[in-house]
Amino acid sequence: MLILKITFLILLADFLTGLIHFYVDQYAVMDSKYLTVSINGLLIHHNFPRKMVSQSYWDLTNGVYKIGGAIFFISLFSGFYWELLFFILVSAQANLIHKWAHQDQSETSIIVYYLQKFYIIQNKKQHLKHHNGHYDGNYCVMTNICNPLLQKLHFWESVVKILKYFGIQPVDRTPKFHQ
Q1: pLDDT tens for residues 103-112?
Q2: Are 63 and 38 in contact (CB under 8 A)?
Q3: What is the crossing angle of helices 2-27 and 94-102, to 10°?
Q4: Contact present, 95 and 61 (Cβ < 8 Å)
Q5: Cα–Cα distance between 140 and 18 in angstroms, integer?
Q6: Which of the 8 DSSP states describes residue 139?
Q7: How far apart are CA 17 and CA 32, in angstroms?
Q8: Which of 2, 120, 162, 164 is 20–30 Å from 55 (CA)?
Q9: What percent of the chain has pLDDT over 70?
């Protein structure tokens, strides 16, 4: 049961960080009123995908740690839940795993190489499907499990259609160039 719960929490972290990635790619604008640094960084990433390779661990994870830490602290008033702490810690690694998907093999550790090779974390091949020039899918950057399932279900296209029905249009993300 514990293994099942841990697996579920990892996939939930992948899905929810993918949902945020989807929102930023489809609906966020540069210099937005909220979370400007995070949103600008994600949007710039499409024009300069390898820029994140030079970012530190803290640069990649601090936003999730700050928000997740606040949520966890507030949750302590109703008790300690290891599942929430685990979920926050795993979610915070999304951009680190994303960074590894952009690194060349010579830039990653042997451990990362094998984690990617055996599909334990997302590999470069799957992540490059997101950088197809449209940025219209493959938003989940942690595992190789969520994206194929969401693609089969046409999940992201359905969300866009539902939001369009309510008058919420995606931002035009015609890429200027690729690196």
Answers
A1: 998 999 999 9
A2: yes
A3: 70
A4: yes
A5: 4
A6: -
A7: 19
A8: 120
A9: 88
Quick one: tokens of 8? 């579920």
pLDDT tens figures, 57-96: 998 898 899 999 999 999 999 999 999 999 999 999 999 9
Task: Find where tokens 């091949």 sit.
Answer: 125
Distance CA 116, CA 29 (A): 32
Quick one: which of 143, 104, 114 has its CA closest to 127?
A: 143
Does this model's pTM top 0.85? My answer is yes
**What is the secondary structure of the chain as a DSSP string?**
-HHHHHHHHHHHHHHHHHHHHHHHHHH--TT-SSSHHHHHHHHHHHHSGGGGGGS-HHHHHHHHHHHHHHHHHHHGGG---HHHHHHHHHHTTHHHHHHHHHS-GGGS-HHHHHHHHTTSS--HHHHHTTTTTT--S----S-SSHHHHHHHTTHHHHHHHHHHHTT-PPPP---S---
Tokens of 15: 């899905």
9-45 residue pLDDT tens? 999 999 999 999 998 888 876 666 656 566 666 777 7
Q: Which of 132, 139, 125, 126 is nearest to 26 (CA)?
A: 139
